[in-house]
Every structure is written in C-alpha cells, then in structure tokens.
C-alpha cells in the first residue's frame, strides 16, 4: 500500500511545502484509518460453484491449473505470490522441489522462443490431495517489438515528468503495446505458445514431465487423450490472458477437428472453468471478427440440441473478476457471450464486482482509488483466491467469502 499512500500524499499535500511533514502525518493517519476499516465491495452474480478444491482428491486423475498472464513484462515465477496464497487456502502444505521448466517452441520452427512453462506440484500433508500448477510466460514473444519504446523510459525523457506521471507512463509503455501486437503478427505465436502449454498440461502427470529442456508437445500423443478423460482442468487468466485462453481453445478445437477423433471426443466431455482476473473481453473484442459459430447456444450445449455432438467442450464456466476502479477491466454484459463468443464453447458467466484496491475518501473532495493497484491487485486479494479455491454458494465456501462477499444467485 506504500505506492497508494505516496500517490495521495503527493497529490494533495506536497504543495504545502512550508508544513510538508505536518501535512504528511495528517494524511497518513487519515488514510490508515480508512484502510483499517476495509469496506471494499465484493458482489457475486451467478450460480453456485465449487472452486477447484473438491477435485484435488480425485483418485482417478489430477487437478491441473494453468495461469496465463496478461499485458506487461513478466518473468517466470510471476505467479508465486498467488500460488502460495492458493496453497494456503487449499491447505496444501507440501511442495515438490524443485519446480520444472520447459522452454516452449514451435513444432514447425524450433528456433522460435515462445516463452516458458513453469510447473509446480502442491500436495496435502497426508498426501491424499494434489494440485499441479502450470505458469505460462509468453512475454518473450512481444519483448523484441516493444523495445521501440524503450527510449521513452530512459533518463533522457523520464526525468522531465512528474514522479507519478512517470510511473504511469512506464506502466503504459510496458502494457499498452501488447493488445496491439496480439492483433498483429504476434497473435499466432502467442496462441501456439498457449497450445503448447495446454498440451503439456494434458500430456502427463508430474513424474512424466521433462525439466530444463526446449521441447515440443503433440496432441496426437495417445497419453494426451488418456489424461483428458480422467484429469480435471482450470485456467486462471489476467487481462489479455483471458482473450488468449478463449482464442487458444477455439484454435485447438479447429486444428484437431477430423484429425484426432479420440482427442476431440475426450475434450468435448470436459468442463473447463476459466477464472478471469481484470476481465477485458469486451474491450479486446474490438477489431476482432465474430466467431464462426455464434448465437447457437441451445443447439450445441443442450443435450437435445441438434448440434450437441459438435460442441468443443461440455461446458466453459467463466468467473469474471472486475474492479470498477480498474480502468482496463469490464464486466461481461448480458448478451455478450451469445454474440461474440463461440457457441461451441458452451460458456456461462459469473460476474464478480470486487474492490481489490482500497477506495479512499480524499478529505471531502470525493472518493478515489489507485487505478494501477486496481489492475494488478487481483492475485494477491484473499477473497479472490478463496473464491477460486472453494467457490461460492456451497458447503465448502470459505468463511472469508461468506462474511465479505454478497452472493446474488441467478437462475435460467
């Protein structure tokens, strides 16, 4: 919260230079009092769901979670804080050491650097429950093209800006280009990177995964279909990562259609939940063509539907987390799924309106929250982690969520 405190103090007290320390002390005390009260909103609209917790003890298979980052520069290990919080929420106190890394590349061009896949294995103390966690880092794909803006972050230009403005400009330079690059030449490589991550996710258990290698994975491997039948899967995505997951799944389904009947059959019977942090699907739909199949949910997703056998998956429940003070986040409005997302994914949506950034009353001038914190604070929020771990509206829902979140159940 130091950045938040500095942001407000700089904005409202620095001009009082003659009594700067006195003003700073008053401001800090005022803001700390508001922080201690913690009246941040958490509202859930949707049907009840269990989270990933109940699937950890599956004796027939494993629970596997893939995290996909969004805009900005990321290094392998970026998900560590979230992973540690998730492990605590699920009471998984044992971790396999060390983690494993796979350097991703293209099956058509092994010289390509398509990022890194880091895998961690978490286990309960009694060894009965297990989670395999995959972290995809696709940053290297766009890093080279973003260097064209590196000069703007150098001392030659940055020192001319006010401190807070410089922080915001650096944030903009690191994050702004990624959606543009994704709509351009980088899109295919990013989707191949996701496909390779998903392939490794489905191919084997912990023991069978390689480590410290640059290696490709094939969906034609018999082990992939075998694991699809018995394992459970979920995605956790942030901002642009959510678009990558949706587009990536559609691409995979298109590639394997009529080529790998066994894989297609196994995939269409899976329910794969996506937890979207700082959801940006409405904004990222701009400039993208409508899917090949839309407005046909009943035909593909209802058991009696005439095209039910042609669905991609059994169901894709989306849990969309959005902080209203996150300038880059949006709720998923009614009708969006039917028009803009592929009907074969059988998507339903739970919208969660949540303040991950503290909202301050700034000395009677109005309420304000740090938009940067509102964009990046999801994976460190205990309520977000608890919802992913134990769901909403079920017997295992965490005490924190029951006390701090309002659930508005929706019905068809």
- Helical/strand content category: alpha/beta
Radius of gyration, in Å, reads 22 Å
Number of domains: 1
Helix content: 25-40%
Structure annotation, total helices: 17
User: How much β-strand is present in the residues?
Assistant: 15-25%
The whole-number mean of residue pLDDT values reads 86
SSE layout:
Elements (H helix, E strand, L loop, with lengths): L1 H12 L6 H18 L4 E5 L16 E6 L11 H10 L4 E2 L4 E4 L12 E8 L6 E8 L2 H7 L8 H4 L4 H13 L1 H6 L3 H18 L9 E2 L7 H9 L1 E7 L1 H17 L4 H7 L5 E5 L3 H4 L12 H5 L14 E7 L13 H5 L6 E8 L5 E2 L5 E2 L2 H6 L5 H9 L8 H6 L1 E4 L3
Parallel strand pairs: 1-14, 2-6, 2-8, 4-7, 8-9, 9-10, 10-11
Antiparallel strand pairs: 1-11, 3-5, 4-5, 5-6, 12-13
Helix pairs in contact: 1-2, 3-16, 8-9, 8-10, 9-11
